[in-house]
Amino acid sequence: MKERPPLPVNENGVAILSGGNPQIARGDGDKPVQMYIANMPEWKREVGRQLDDLIVRTVPNVRKAVRWNSPFYGVDGQGWFISYHVFARYVKVTFLKGKSLDPLPPIDSKDPDARYYHIFEDGMDKAQMEEWVRQAAAVPGWDGF
Question: Do the beta carbons of residue 7 and residue 23 sit within 8 Å?
Fold first, then answer.
């Protein structure tokens, strides 16, 4: 069996997966999420900071975790409502119960409940993102872990 070559690492020694997504160990709380954000590449790091700030500001006492190399945000007793993941050209934001949002986030999913929003280098619609976050946190979320 042929051995896989090692993953490339960034300046912090964190392995970088395809598309530039940082490989961050599974963990609960703010620390692993901040580690993920600190290791997002290039302009995507600022997107991560903006998303984290917006979510924390919009949802008091938000829960945070990293699973599957992606930050997740949730509300105690209601589950997880949003996650994001780095790709080569954009940051994919997943609204885990996105079909309940108005207006719907623009990108459909194979998951019957989820919807996506892609943030490119030119930025995001912060007012719309804040409204989606507010709505997403108010409905029962995903309780997958």
Answer: yes
